[in-house]
Structure formats: structure tokens, C-alpha cells
Amino acid sequence: MTAISGSNDLMKLEDMERNATHPLLSAGEDGDDNDQGGNGAGRPGVGTVVKAKPKTKKPSMYRVLLLNDDYTPMEFVVHVLERFFNKSREAATEIMLHVHHRGVGVCGIYTYEIAETKVSQVIDFARRHQHPLQCTMEKE
Ligand code: TYC
Q1: What is the pLDDT of residues 56-108, one digit of tens each?
Q2: What are phi and psi of 63, to 5 degrees?
Q3: Cα 57 to averaged position of ligand 1 atoms, centre (Å)
Q4: Residue of the CA atom closest to atom 11 of ligand 1
Q5: pTM for the complete prediction?
Q6: Is 109 helix (H, G, I), strand (E, B) or coil?
């Protein structure tokens, strides 16, 4: 006759379930009083599940710059700033005059792809109108 050791084995199973690492519990919070640091020390293959770290990184930003030259008409530059950089007539005029006097000025700050697109659009638009206006970008 085999002895039935039922209650003993059942207790062990319950203990195992109670001690199973829970994603919302960290070391020492599993409600038992036999904490071993919560890292499964001495229990091969058992470790603490640590909450996933939200991994969101801010993208690098790039300044789009307009360069001065002696030939592009002021009105054309103002138009470029209104059309491609969504500036008001007043803001566009201010930036154009800044570039005219200082040699270079910021049109806007964007993520890499947007900045690259703006630069291409401005250079292409200026070329099509036979103006030497130059535009470039730099990491912020
Ligand atoms: N310097 C130009 C002129 O006198 C005007 C100008 C302003 C040109 C800004 C380019 O990015 C520029 N007509």
C-alpha cells in the first residue's frame, strides 16, 4: 500500500504559486516572510520581473538657416518664409531683414527629415526662379 501524503504536497504547490514572481510586485513584496532579496536567489531560473522602462527618446532637432546673398530680392525671401515656414508677413520680414544684415538667420527648427525637406524645397524653389538664395541646416 502506498501512503497518500496528499496534504503535504498540496501545501507545497500552494506555496510555489504564492511565491511566483508577480509583475506588480518587487523584491520583498510578495507577501511571504521568506524573502531572499526577491531575485530568486538559490532558485535556478527564477528572477524578478522588473517593470518595463518606457523607452521614448526625444528626436534631435535641426535649425534651418537662410543665407544672405546680394541678388535675391527681399520680397522673394519674404515669400519663401511665408510659404515654406508658415511665417506671417511681419515675422517673415523681420527674419529676412535679420539675414540681410547679419548674413544668416533661423527660419525654423525641425526634426531631421522635415528640416531636410524644407532645405530642398527652398533651394529648388529659388533655382526655379533663378535666384541664388541658399538654405542649409545644422543640429541644434
Ligand atoms: N541681400 C538681399 C538684397 O539686398 C536680400 C536677401 C535677404 C537675400 C535674405 C537673401 O536670405 C536672404 N536683395
Answers
A1: 999 999 999 999 999 999 999 999 999 999 999 999 999 999 999 999 999 99
A2: -80, 135
A3: 38
A4: 68
A5: 0.67
A6: strand
